[in-house]
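pls ignore typos typing on phone
magnesium ion + seq
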Amino acid sequence: MKSVIFGLQWGDEGKGKVTTYFSKDYDYVVRYSGGSNAGHTVEYTDFKLIHHLLPSFYVKKNVGAIISNGVVLDLEQLVEEIEEFKSKTGTYPKLYISELAHVVLPHHKKLDEKLEQIKGKNAVGTTKRGIGPAYADKVHRIGIRLSDFKNKDKFYEKIKNISKLYKNLYNIEVESIENVLTSYEKLKSHIVPHGEIINLINKNKILFESTQGVLLDIDVGTYPYVTGANCNTTGIQNGVGFPVKTENYIGVFKAYLTRVGNGPFPTEAFGKEGEEIRKRGHEFGATTGRPRRCGWLDLPLLKYAITVSGATELVMTKGDILNGMEKIKVCVAYKIDGNIVDRISSVDDLEKAEPIYETLDGWENHTSKEFNEYLSFIESYVKRKITHISVGPKVEEIIKL
Ligand code: GDP
Ligand code: IMO
Ligand code: MG
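k done
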């Protein structure tokens, strides 16, 4: 069995928590794209983990973890995360990392920051984790992969060449990579050839854990306000480097909507309205601590995300955050250039979209009739079943419908 859990919005839908819950039925959780820009918060009864690079697998259920070639790896971050994992759980992760994965180096973070500065008001609002520049170096064919660490002479030769290139191109100093090397030594026992990753994926029950959300995908997201990779489900095959078949496409969405960073957001709520959702939902970035922009659920966008991701079933999270609100707004169409549209085939016109809302009755909790009406309203609009609801931050707070 192969399944994928992914975000249907602009990230932070609760993928980490949902992945952890579902992972009990799988052998391995695989991260196939993105890097330490992700922040997946997983709350167990007595401790909490924030996963940036380490997949969200269920601790104590003997679930393993795989980081495949499509991920860009910040080695120091991963070492730190493993240390934290060990100290909080008392166990060591069963982790395999593909030697084809590219490495985020210190100059990638510098360049990320510099590019954002130069873009000024057009800045993407990146996490400054060096994601875009690391993928760019991969495409420029000057990236460093884990396999390059095996031969130190060749490794230093490559670093020297990158250094020369960067000085000419960007006037950026490629500084000492000693810390990266130390982290590599600590991770060495986890790094395996590509064939071994293929074997593990083929022979086991696999849950792919996506990062970010469909609307941040570099191709079908709100470009240029997107991340540097195909975080959509379409990224799986390239991200694991072979044509794996996935049966279940489990799309996660929040009962409302958030976005970190810049870019269009038609249903964004400003002033008191936005502030209330932010306060109720504790909507602050798990990676950067930035306040998340908050607003109402956008059904045309959700439907678009379902189409481009192939979601076969849905999980709704954080409905509990809206408990006790008198009225709930939900966007059912847009006005774009004077025309009413309730279906979009591209997100290019989103800047111009004015939301048209329906206002529904609020609910007390997930057992209320109004809550069920909200679920039915969404299902009949997007034509997909919501198979689970998440009703709190803890891993076990999920209900199968
Ligand atoms: P991810 O990046 O998609 O994994 O999501 P984040 O971890 O960045 O953000 C989701 C936040 O909401 C985390 O703090 C979770 O602990 C929390 N969370 C997840 N599901 C629920 C839920 O159903 N209710 C509540 N109240 N919190 C939730
Ligand atoms: P998880 O996996 C929310 C956003 C950044 C920025 C854009 C590009 O926790 O859902 P990048 O650093 O990737 O070049 O930034 O993408 N972004 C996220 N927003 N959740 C994430 O991950 C994100 N990862 C990147 O805020 O707008
Ligand atoms: Mg997150």
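The CA atoms of residues 40 and 51 lie 5 Å apart. The chain has a mean pLDDT of 96. more later
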